[in-house]
Amino acid sequence: MREFDYIVVGGGTAGCVVAARLSQDPAVRVLLLEAGGSGRTQAMTVANAWPENLGSAADWGDVTTGQADAGAVVYPRGRGLGGSGAINAMAHVRGHRAVYDGWATGGATGWGFRDLLPCFLRSERADGRDPALRGTDGPVRVAPVPEANL
Q1: How confident is the model at residue 119 (pLDDT cuts 50, 70, 90)?
Q2: pTM of full prediction above 0.85
């Protein structure tokens, strides 16, 4: 039986970043476990085709509990390498700073925006953005949505 120093469960964006970082040390053995496959469909590689991923084998098919007046809502979550980023047009949305600060205020010490910003900066590569707020050398490429020519 093989032995590993680390086992990372989930090959979504975060899991892939964690596994890649850990494996930079050649003395460390890392196992990345993902329930889905590594295959790609056209809908995973063409941003405006992303709705074709919903309800596919690459989507866990989750739904939320009832929401106020809306009832249960479809909650797409990616199943495969790349996780939800592989099925949601590769959208990267960092939470609003007030949400993180709310966590810290509520007792989650170390989870405020200022606490987490260094982690965000290390994970992102956002060319041409303010390096005080966006990373410049991380493994996750972040770019603004291109404006459509209407």
Answers
A1: very high
A2: no
